[in-house]
Structures are given as structure tokens and as C-alpha cells.
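name: query_chain
kind: protein
chains: 1
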Amino acid sequence: QVQLVESGGGLVQAGDSLRLSCGASGRAFSHYTMGWFRQAPGKERESVAALSSIDGVTYYADSVKGRFTISRINAKNTVYLQMNNLKPEDTAVYYCAARTNPIATMRASGYDYWGQGTQVTVSS
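structure:
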């Protein structure tokens, strides 16, 4: 089992950058495929990015391609989401998630463990 804790959210202006971090407790972090999701008020949770545990394959939502980058440092049990050129529509609570299946997926239902979320607010 793994526990996830997100950090790095905050209030920024449009065009700014933020880096979210997700620290994981437990063993064998390197074996988990990781994902980032977000949920804006009144909207359903949506996928943002995913990173496979075995081959480094990444997936991104079309809305963030070219602006967001998911990465991990296994030695630090941490996955990151670098967010550049932020837009007001990126405002949401961001969640990281982990799954034991090594194949990356953008489906929320495919993840076994979730963090509590961190708020990102982008002002125009």
C-alpha cells in the first residue's frame, strides 16, 4: 500500500509556472505507475498526465500538452507535475494517484491510491 501527499499548489497569475510534488510513503515506489488528475468546482475529475513505471511512457490531456510535464525521482519517492504558462482554466484541485499496473492510463478508475489534493488557482 502507498500513501500520497501532494504539495506545491497556490495562487498564481496567468502565464506563471508552478511545480506540484507528490510524495509517496511505502515500499517499491518505483513499481507504481503515477498519474495526475484535477477537478474544478462543479466539474468532473479529469485526467491531466500519466507516467508508466516500466518504460517511462507519458500521456497528457490535450488541454495541457506542451505546457505540463510529469516526471518522477524514484530515489525520492516523488512524482512531479511541472506546469508552465498557466491559464485560468487550469484552476482546480490537483490530485496525484498511483496504480500497481505498470501500464500508464488516463482513466481515474484505473488507479488504486489517491492523495488528498492541492489547490491551484490561476488568476487572469
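note: The longest strand covers residues 18-25.
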